[in-house]
Amino acid sequence: MAKYIIKRILLALLVLFGVSIILYFLLRMMPINYVMEKFLPQINQGNMTWEDLGRIMKLYGFDLVMFKDENGTMLGEVNNSFGSIFTGYWQWLWNFIRGDMGQSFKYNEPVNEIIASKMGVSFGISFVSLIFQVIIAIPLGIKCACNQYGKFDYITTVLFMTLTAFPSFFLGNMVIKWFAEDLGWFPSGRLDSGLGLTGIAGFGDMIWHLILPMFVLTILSIGSLMRYTRTNTLEVLNADYIRTARAKGLSEGKVVYKHVFRNTLIPLVTVLASTLPMLFGGAMITETIFNIDGIGKVAYDALKEGDIPLAMCYNMFIAMLTVIGTLLADLMYAVVDPRVKLSN
Amino acid sequence: MADNNKKEIKKHYITRSESRKIAKENSRAIAGFEKQKKRKVRPEEYVTQMKDDKNIVEFEDLHTYFFSDSGTVKAVNGVTFSVPAGSTVGVVGESGCGKSVTSLSLMQLVQAPSGQIVSGSIRFRADMFKLDEKGKKIPVYEKYTDENGEEKIKLDEKGKPVIRKNGLGGNMYEMERQVVDIAKMPTEAMRSIRGREVAMIFQEPMTSLNPVFTIGNQLDEVGRLHIEGISKHQVKARSIEMLQLVGIADPEGVYKKYPHELSGGMRQRVMIAIALLCNPKLIVADEPTTALDVTIQAQILDLLRDIKGKINGSIMLITHDLGVVAEMADYVVVMYAGRVIEMGTAEDIFDNPLHPYTIGLQKSKPTVDKEADSLYCIPGFVPNPINMPNYCYFRDRCEKCMEKCSGEYPGLIKVSDTHSVSCYLYEGEEVKNG
Amino acid sequence: MADNNIEVNTAEPVPATEREFLEVENLCKYFPVGFDFFGRPNKFLKAVDGVSFKLKKGKTLGIVGESGCGKTTMGRTLLRLYDITSGDVYFKGQNVSALKNREFDKLRPNMQMIFQDPYASLSPRLTVGEIIGEAARQHKIVEKSGYQDYVLEVMRMCGLQPHYFERYPHEFSGGQRQRICIARALALKPELVICDEPVSALDVSIQAQIINMLIELRKNLGLTYIFISHDLSVVKHISDEVGVMYLGTMVEYGSRDSIFNNTLHPYTKALFSAVPVPNPHVKMNRIILKGDIPSPVNPPSGCKFHTRCEKCMEICGRIAPNYKEVEEGHFCACHLYNTVEETEQLELKYEEERRLAEEKADELAKKQFWKKVTDKLHGAEKNNNVVSPEVEEKADSAVSEALADKENVKDVPKE
Amino acid sequence: MEENKEEINSENVTQGNFNDNLHGENLTERAKVLSPGMTVAKRFFRSKLSVIGLAVLIILFVFSFLGPLFSPWSAAEGTVKDYNSDLIKDTYTVFRVEYVGADGETYEAYDITIDTPDYVILGDINGSHLMGTDSYGYDVFTRLMYGGRVSLTIGFVVILIETLLGVLLGGLAGYFGKWVDQLIMRIVDILSCIPTLPLMLILSVVFTNIFDVSKLYYMMGILCLIGWPGTARLVRGQILSLREQEFMLAAKCSGLSTSKKIFKHLVPNIIPQLIVSMTLGLGSIILTEATLGYLNLGAPLTTATWGNMINLAAQSTYRQYYPNLWLGAGICITLAILAFNFVGDGLRDAFDPKMKR
Q1: How many CA atoms, within 13 angstroms, populate the side-chain half-sphere of residue C92?
Q2: A250 falls within a domain
């Protein structure tokens, strides 16, 4: 068991190494450089020379190449040669291994602190919506499977599959339009009303703001989880041991909620374990639409604006969660299914 | 040649319009039967009388069909036979002859909605709970005679009447012996019979036990369900007793194990233990040894024989192996394409087989103690009972086929008190005073 | 391609005359089941463990045994469907186990196999004609022009109707599918056919058809069969020679008559008596074996059958019996048939092995001892450059410690 | 009765043609069966959802590919009389230039789009414009058709390439195993560990300076790159399990060549699963394309795609007052995804004999 886990962790490290290389090189290939964008106006206004910028860039780990165009004006651009990116990568990796994730260009704070501080809200939203998903989707899925091709099955499936088919941004905007803008029941975004409420009132205010995003997140994933439950339940329902259970004289409810459910749980647990990245990583689009200052939105901005340390750290964080999620899924499998013994 | 091939192939496949017709008929038929099932059935409708009181089960003209995409499969097509109390009845036949479906019909376990019991009756003599006006079971109370010579109900410390315990350690309720028709019985009522009065052992010991529960859990479940008022401790004791009874050397250990940790033979023993837990009157064993090795098969057959003596019940043994039947059964029923073609005592069938199919079957099996250069074989293949004509189904494979065989399907002819056969060869040989 | 075969055969003329049609020597097939940290196998399932036999052309060898005895694996390993772990297979005098895969592929048409499950062994998306004919076309056994006629001829030979040519296998019943499997094998004009439980998935009436067909084809085409089955009656009916396998080893081997009339091994006896006879009057004196078949991953020591054997002796648990010729052409691996000298020899050998094992343990203990001493000394030297009386004392205690350890070490291999 | 047995015995054993001495009609042949294609079709059409899905798909296809032929407007034709192409270009870049924004002309264009009377044309729903026109005077309904063309085409092209890649690499990994397998599967692991959306964002920013149609091709390339590991995994798993099947052993036993083994025995058996995964994948590709469009990072804005049309919803003015501009695109995307999911599910049930009842 321990051997198995160690082996998996070693493999995961290899994978993460690969991920980090690809991500770093891609991030460096972006035509936007946060530092450069920040100081360009000053250079244009003549408050700063290209040499100054070069020195500043060095501090941020970039290499500035200066050259003159045909008119003789001084220009500069980030050195995106392979060698430069490679050096940058080594620097990043060395710091990363030592536990230094770097400073965000935009916030001028250590990125791990930014991520840690923004994660709470995102986790809260995702977690609540996950709970709702599970308690709604699994019983519905089992019920649908028990009445395969029945009226209940069709209605539920059509309803939830339709809701799941909505793109998140479309659903989000529709929800904002109707519930926030037209009906005015809920606020259209942000975390609080900005009234400085504290205590229970503050918490209530936050919940009131978060209802719509939670609703959107729940609705979006319910369908697939339900469908998955249904498919697996159908498979279990055809198994020989279910016939045995019926032959014992067990009532249909007991057959379904004891014998069927326990077996359906096996694949479900792995699916739930793999929602780990989503749980901690935030919902990028939903947070952006609702203007929630969670980890997803911060990462979205970082990616768009070229805040390399933050983007890098966020992506590595997600990759790590993915790796842990799969490992967790396998371990959970062994817990739920007595037949599975983990070995190499 | 090629054209001929195409024609043959076309003839072989269902056309689109035929398929549509089948689908329409199927959905109509299934909807009808399902509606029938949902209807509330009063007990009077399914309580009947036995034809012969010696029997424990009587099948009469049972029809069980599967409404499949390629047509109605008449898996059981008018089966009539009975299981006398205390005996072992072997049902033999090749795959697709309807022997398993017959047994599943008895348990009401035919895979719905496509499979339905269409008509006929399965009469079973069961000990049913007597119910009061409210539909509740009537308990039997512990009584004593007080100093005045009056009979009084014993009360416990809290002043509640004490219910008498039965042999298994559960509460005793007033029972009545009823003959029920399983084919007409609602599933709700059937549940109290399944596992308590009739128990079933399935073919595949590897998949018939739920992989995620321990053996103990799966055994206890039956006890807790059917023996009301039994304590947790007693259930476990009963389960372990059963494991011991089926010859498991380390019952306490096996009780805690998961099915995948046991071998095929052991699992089949566990299945038998589950079946025996409530002292059923009838055990239906559907090919209990087919998936096992010969040496293990010998063990299991030995065990079944042993157990039948101990519980004083009957066994309905379904198998394709003539050897197993010869060894186990008192009575033998031979089935072919959904119909009973011959039945009688084991001696009747093995010493004096009448139906050409039965004869052929016995001769086509090589045996260890006989020498033969070439085996006898029945030509052709076992038919799939879809769209069957109304003449003897064995006609095309039969060597003794006569002109008469093109006529309608031959009825069962009783050639002796115990022996009947469904073949025109024996017309006129029947005994009248059967 | 046919010329090629002849060439290969004549390349080694000398052994070809000496060897039988098929000779198997000490064939082993181990499947790795446990792996160490780096993915190297460290635990094996010995599915076939040293099987040897010889088979004449035109004869049929029946192999019987229960599930897990390695009979199927043996058949598959013979045809190199699994890689051979060790041992040699001589086919028509040629050592085919030493050939490269590519070379062996050219020989494959000569050795064909009929599989157990007629449902799984036919590719579901090919037509019957394609299944039967494709390999014949690849090996150029038939000209392109005569291809269809050839396939139809093979189909006719196996009792399949010509209009089945363009149908798909799932439309057929088990019996017909098995005929298709047989036709596929025979379309390659093989000399050796390994029938791996060809009838066990079929109905009784169909079994007889297939068996009769196999016998007739053997007569007409001069085939040699290895007939693997768990069904003794079928094996008896079709075989000239019979081998009984248990947990990867051959326990008894001989001509059909000698095996069935003069059964030697207790396992074979139990196996025979376990077969139910379709006669209600015969109440057999049955030998019912105790317990289950042990797992081949962890076979019992000594004679593998001793855990279930009713004639088990003290020696059986310790020493594996020799596989020896008890009477002419009748081999058996059982201590019951040992002469006194043989038993003595085995005991001697066992003692010798035990002694060797003990010596090895001793050596290990010694090594341990010296390591301890040097370790202690090293430890001391780090603190103190001069060997003080203190250090000597330490070394002494280490020695006594090691001596105590020696007892423990010695005990380990014994168990 | 004993003589019966003997009599049959004397006639003895059937020789040679095993099937032919039957009396009268052969009962085995009497039962007709469903042809393989019919079996699948039967199971597919049994579920009403797959039928609905298929119908919706057909409608969407007709709408997107045939619809424009009947529309009086074209995707690049507006009704605003005084528009000129320069203006269009400028106004289209408004949302981007906002940030760079240093030159006066652009500011003007910005003003026009927001404040000029032309703007009122938005949402003007009348007989000739079923869903009104957008700020450039394009007929929204017609643009919806053209958008469908692009979105669906992207979906199909991407899924085809992605599946080809997946089959090739997954097949290599599954069939040859050992180090090939290790290498390919590690690459698959790495690619599937990189979160999709951030990766798409990064790549879109990398290609941000491309404004012409070639951006579409880059985007398709990226989508393929992201999609193939899933297919590769599926194919590898399938091949690993098929390799152990007896029919593969039989193929090996016949000495068939490797290519025949792969293309005649393995590949036809994974095609059903591939079709299912392709159908389900189509939905997700359309979704990804739309997401990129919404984030303003997808196809160049001049191209009508459903994703590009819906990105207007990101601005509250459009969202609140002109739902006719984006609601249609959203509904089309939803319908397409839903339909592909229904059809995919139906196909899975149809191909998978385990599911049959």
Answers
A1: 17
A2: yes
The pLDDT value given to residue C277: 80
Is A105 a domain residue?
A: no
**CATH number of domain containing A259:** 1.10.3720.10
Distance CA C413, CA B288 (A): 43
Which residue positions in chain C have pLDDT lower than 50? 1-14, 16, 383-387, 408-415
> What does DSSP assign to residue D266?
I
Tally of domains within chain A: 1
Q: Which domain holds residue A200?
A: 119-336
Calpha distance D341→C385 (Å, rounded): 80
Q: Determine, for residues C173 and D265 on separate chains, whether the beta-carbon distance falls below 8 Å.
A: no
Chain A touched by D335 (CB under 8 Å): yes
Among residues C222, C220, C197, C14, the alpha carbon closest in space to that of C110 is found at C222
Instruction: Give the nearest chain D residue to C185 (CA atoms).
Output: D254
pLDDT tier at B333, thresholds 50, 70, 90: very high
Strand pairing partners for B47? B180
**Cα dist from B379 to A29, B354, B395, B396, D10, whole Å:** 76, 18, 11, 9, 16
Q: What is the 3-state secondary structure (H, E, C) of D100-154?
A: HCCCHHHHHHHHHHHHCHHHHHECCCCCCCCCCECCCCEEHHHHHHHHHHHHHHH
> Under 8 Å CB-to-CB from C207, ≥6 apart: which residues?
B364, B365, C199, C234
The ipTM assigned to this model is 0.80
The span from the first CA to the last CA of chain D, in angstroms, equals 46
Q: Determine if residue A154 is left, alpha or beta; phi over 0 gives left, psi from -120 to 50 gives alpha, anything else beta.
A: alpha
Residues A109-129 have pLDDT tens digits of 888 888 888 888 888 888 999
Q: For residue A230, tell me if it sits in a domain.
A: yes
Which residue in A236, A238, A244, A246 has the most chain B C-beta atoms within 10 A of its own C-beta, making it the best mutation to test that interface?
A244
Q: What is the per-residue DSSP string for D20-43?
A: S---SS-HHHHS-B--HHHHHHHH
In the three-class reduction of DSSP (H, G, I as helix; E, B as strand; rest coil), residue B50 is classed as coil
Could you tell me if residue A200 is inside a domain?
yes
In chain C, what residues touch D250 (CB-CB under 8 Å)?
113, 115, 121-123, 181, 184
Could you tell me the end-to-end alpha-carbon distance of chain B, in angstroms, rounded to an integer?
56
pLDDT at A27: 84
